[in-house]
Amino acid sequence: MIVLEKRPQPSQAWSLATPLVAVLATMFFGGLLFAALGKNPVEAIMTIFWEPLFGEFSFYYRPQLLVKGAPLVLIAIGLSLGFKAGIWNIGAEGQYIMGAIVGAGVGLAFYPLEAWYIFPLMVIGGALGGWAWAMIPAFLKVRFGTNEILVSLMLVYVAEQMLASVSLGLLKNPEGFGFPGSRNFQSYASAYNADLIEGSGMHWGVVAAFIAVIFAYVLLNRHMLGFHIRLTGEAPRAARFAGVNPARLILFCLGLSGALAGLAGLFEVSGPSGQVSIDFNVGYGFTAIIVAFLGRLHPVGILLAGSLMALTYIGGEIAQSEMGLPAAAIQVFQGMLLFFLLAFDLLTNYRLRLALKEVA
Amino acid sequence: MTTPLLSLQGLTKAYPGVVANDTVSFDIGAGEVHALLGENGAGKSTLVKMIYGLVKPDSGTMLLRGQPYAPPEPRAARADGIAMVFQHFSLFDALDVAENVALGMENPPAMGDLASRIRDVSETYGLPLDPYRRVGDLSAGERQRVEIIRCLLQDPKLLIMDEPTSVLTPQEVDILFQTLQKLSSEGTSILYISHKLEEIRTLCDHATILRLGKNVGECIPAETSAREMAELMVGETLQTPERAGRDFGAVALDISGLSVPSPSEFGTALKNLHLTVRKGEVLGIGGVAGNGQDELLGVLSGEISTDAEAVKLAGEPIGREGPTARRRMGLLTAPEERLGHAAAPDMSLTENALLTGSVREKLEKRGFLKWAETQGFAEKIIKAFDVRTPGPDNAARSLSGGNLQKFVIGREVLQNPDVLVVNQPTWGVDAAAAAAIRQAILDLAAGGAAVVCISQDLDELMEISDSFAALNEGRLSAPRPTTELSVDEIGLMMGGAHGIEVAHV
Q1: What is the pLDDT of residue B17?
Q2: If you average pLDDT over residues B247-253, what whole number do you get?
Q3: Do the Cβ atoms of B21 and B47 come closer than 8 Å?
Q4: What confidence tier does B450 reach under pLDDT thresholds 50, 70, 90?
Q5: pLDDT digits (tens, 9 = 90+) for B78-137
Q6: Bridge pairing between strands B33-37 and B189-194
Q7: Do B347 and A225 touch (CB under 8 A)?
Q8: Considering B25, B62, B164, B186, which has the largest number of Cβ atoms within 10 A of its Cβ?
Q9: How far is CA A101 from each of CA A90, A182, A257, B185, rounded to the nearest angstrom?
Q10: Measured over all CA atoms, what is the biggest interatomic distance in chain B, rounded to whole angstroms?
Q11: A238·B327 Cβ contact <8 A
């Protein structure tokens, strides 16, 4: 019999080793999965993890890592603050969409004026859009005690309908020959979120993601508010005793995560994506939940996890096109990563012990 | 008489560090209503758990109708005709009465049969209950009836009731007593656990009194005064300290007309509380757990908001202020529950020092934390209160209960409060540590602070408090100087046999 024994102290070593062990276990069992599908497992794993970084076409894939990683990190940082306090914003996807719609709307309202202040205004608009969308579940929870998981999740689908509506109506490109979707920001210099260094993939969203990581790190480790967030997650009653106002914390955490998701949406719509369109969102808001946990809700961990997730996305696409792996297999592979992480995470607080039969 | 129904002979049960029952012996006759009386921690629960098969005695034997009886589990006890109604109910709100009853039976009959049997029993024993009502809609008293009927359907020979009246209204208590008397007249024995003396005098034929795990006396309640029973329950060995009347300063803490509804289902509402504590005074608040202690602490810590004027600190109304503002003004508190309330289990001692110390110890500057100073404060607590730990980086949960308690009390005492409120400051703490904590409280008072000490340990309250009051069902008796009080007066204040106030619950 194997017995789980609670450690008196959380193990520092396991806390650091868990993500690595989880990645290795995912590689192994993912390899088995690919082998079962009749593909060469070593080649598949190499394609996913090696090809985007050092392969023949890495000059194209490397900037893509930043482009895909930045929104994941930016959203996950916001979510992690709430998750730490036990406030579950599952609707980042919706806040991402609303940020994109509002931010793009601000930019398009100025078209064709060229001015330096347009892009900053769009950034503010994006943050406000995401914030406002997240304040709906926050307000309902504080005022009526509704479940923020359900409300924020359902608002994702409302946001998707709004996206479809504005793509076909309010924000539709008047010169678009009737095709759905807004004007392309690529041809509107004042509103375009261009690469800061040509071809590097380094756009303003990447900068914002790095700033968010630093901000979150300082907040959690050096600031009273961050301490209260951690305390609320660890021991809600002790947090009340310490003087934390739960309602204010809910408004802050949901609001901030919504604003960051909105920012991610704005940077995406005005840069890599280029326009508001019906299928503009690709699930960053949901994947960011995995990234937040994969990064153990730690800012630096999230930075690494976001990069890893972006890698499996890009590597997965390469594996699909080059090796003919089904998309579902790649999704299973990503799911395994979270599964193993959570499973090995147990070892941080518990140790395994073999209980011998003769011990009564 | 003939053989008793159940005979307990020298039952002993020890847990690490405490002997819960020490060679307890007594008999319960057939059809007798037998009271088991004692303060919290006297060992009543452990004793009935042994009878019900939940706990195995270390030594001693039980005889049921003269036959050796050692139930390995509650199912065996039920098969032998022993049933128990617990203080907290185990019912599913979403199911109806009959379904709940069926869940507790070994071989439940068809629903229709069961419903009619429930009706029969409820009519026979005067416990009106509709088998098809949802439990979620029932009052506490009706829920208890479900539990009782569940027991009665087993046709028990001995019914154990653990503090049954703590959740009942006076009318419901009357109904319950009629039922119990009818049961006893039909030959069912009842073991009735309580610390409410007047109840026991009305209902019970015989009483066994436990103190510190020992059977310290038996009596016939109808022929014994509440005063005598209280004396047995509390013990005569209380040491009232010789304490010259000291001069106290101005009023530091003033509660007047404080009423607060119960914050949770099993909580207690506070009813029209009045108290004043002056500088340098230690007010001891006794009473059995669950009579409003946690709520009183919450009201004082700022976790429960009240009318602004109901709580005053040095004349300032603070009823609406939160915990942080109160700390800034000099009112500090230490709750009973160490892990999860007074301290965050998985956080380090340094972080836990910050938990209440941030304002008064100036551990933050415009919101930014000063970790070096915080660690210094944690080390100061560890040193001053002899907290046994490798260092302030260790998680709170890695400390033993006593050590963590020293840390929690030390954290507040070292912040030099004007008013300190502690709940159960020495619960589960070894004697040496307890003495150190009490000394720290006395030193604080000698330095001019006002102290409110809520505790169930009467010896402790007698040792450190200048005046004494007791909480009973959310009401506070008028505080009286400790030196004027006799042991039986204290017992009566606690047991609720005191004065007119309690007659109308």
Answers
A1: 63
A2: 88
A3: yes
A4: very high
A5: 888 999 988 777 888 888 899 988 887 777 888 888 889 898 888 888 888 888 888 877
A6: parallel
A7: no
A8: B164
A9: 19, 10, 17, 79
A10: 79
A11: no
* Minimal C-alpha gap between A24 and chain B (Å): 28
In a domain, A268, yes or no: yes
Contacts of B20 (CB under 8 A, 6+ apart): B13, B14, B43, B46, B213
Domain locations along chain B? 6-234, 244-330+417-432+445-505, 338-416
CA distance B394 to chain A (A): 7
> In Å, how far are B53, B342, B464 from B442, measured between CA atoms?
44, 21, 7
Beta bridge partners of A86: none
Q: Report the domain count for chain A.
A: 1
Please name the residues between 264 and 303 in chain B that touch chain A, using a CB distance below 8 Å: 301-303
User: With a cut of 0.95, is the ipTM above it?
Assistant: no
Residue A312 sits in which domain range? 40-324
Q: Provide the pLDDT confidence category of residue B240 given band limits of 50, 70 and 90.
A: very low
Q: Does domain B6-234 have CATH number 3.40.50.300?
A: yes
Given pLDDT bands bounded at 50, 70 and 90, which one contains residue B499? very low
Nearest Cα of chain B lies from the Cα of A252 at a distance, in angstroms, of: 15
Nearest alpha-carbon partner for A80 in A284, A217, A270: A217
Chain A window 4-33: which residues touch B at a Cβ cutoff of 8 Å? 8-10
Strand partners, B33: B190
CA distance B372 to A345: 30
- Chain A partners within 8 Å of B367 (Cβ): 223-225
Task: For tokens 């200048």, name the residue.
Answer: B466
For the B244-330+417-432+445-505 domain, the top CATH level (class) is alpha beta
Q: What is the pLDDT of residues A313-324, one digit of tens each?
A: 899 989 998 888
Joined tokens for residue B262: 């119960």
Classify residue A33: in a domain, yes or no.
no
Coarse DSSP helix, strand, coil percentages of chain B, rounded to the nearest 5 percent: 35, 25, 40
pLDDT band at B170 (very low <50, low <70, confident <90, very high): low
Q: Per-residue confidence at B505, pLDDT binned at 50, 70, 90?
A: very low
- Residue at A321: amino acid letter: S
Helix H or strand E encompassing B276? strand B270-278
Residue with tokens 């970790």: B371
Pair A261, A209: CB distance under 8 Å: no
**B341: chain A residues, CB-CB within 8 Å:** 235, 237-238, 241
Tell me which of B95 and A231 has the higher pLDDT.
A231
Question: CB A243 to CB B354 under 8 A?
Answer: no
